[in-house]
Write a structure and sequence with these properties.
By secondary structure, the chain is α+β, with helices and mostly antiparallel strands. The chain contains three helices and 14 strands. The longest helix is centred in the first third of the chain and has 24 residues.
Length: 204
């Protein structure tokens, strides 16, 4: 029991440390987190924690995330204002805090995407009217070629691939920039109310 309590306490301290660090990088303006300004890689790296940049164009969000917890191949990333993004094998499967959230999804992992294998996807989402919906897609992977990325002053040699998913009355396309066995950057669809959002891995 004592060991469990100690573990819980350490987890809580880690969360508080992460949240405090994120708030320093994204100060508040008018009660809301301000967009990312001129922050250097050195400042980001001071925490010693993994950091990811998040952009949500439809909501005007540009902020940082860090890891809240891990459960096997599932990793939860969170922002200073409480948004939560869940990845399985580097691919987004859930969001919380956007409003029109992705509640859950059946998605491929980074390895399957890198291999170029066809697959099925299922999205379960909430729209802006708080109604739930489901969309099922048949997806294919195409390689767009090599691309040099610069993320906060560091270059990355990546291979860009696109995941095109179709159903009878619609199509979406997700984009991934692969570096070795990892997804360095992605642009992924969330819901009709949010559209695509973008992630960049800044500090591993």
């Amino acid at each position: 029991m004592a060991l469990k309590s100690a573990t819980l306490a350490l987890t809580c301290l880690a969360l508080l440390a992460g949240c405090g660090f994120l708030e320093k990088l994204t100060p508040r303006a008018g009660g809301q987190l301000a967009p990312i300004g001129q922050v250097s890689r050195a400042e980001i790296a001071k925490s010693g924690q993994p950091v990811m940049r998040l952009r949500v164009p439809s909501r005007g969000i540009d902020t940082f995330l860090t890891i809240r917890d891990r459960r096997g191949d599932v990793v939860n990333w969170f922002s200073a204002d409480g948004m939560l993004f869940t990845f399985r094998n580097d691919v987004l499967i859930e969001t919380r805090g956007l409003g029109a959230d992705l509640m859950s999804s059946a998605a491929p992992g980074a390895g399957q995407i890198a291999a170029g294998a066809g697959h099925r996807r299922a999205y379960f989402f909430v729209d802006d009217d708080d109604q739930t919906g489901r969309r099922d897609y048949l997806c294919r992977i195409t390689t767009d070629g090599g691309e040099q990325l610069e993320i906060f002053g560091r270059g990355h040699n990546t291979r860009k691939v696109s995941e095109t998913c179709e159903r009878e009355i619609g199509r979406i396309t997700n984009h991934y920039w692969l570096e070795g066995g990892k997804i360095r950057k992605s642009r992924e669809w969330v819901s009709p109310g949010i559209g695509q959002i973008e992630f960049e891995r800044v500090i591993d």
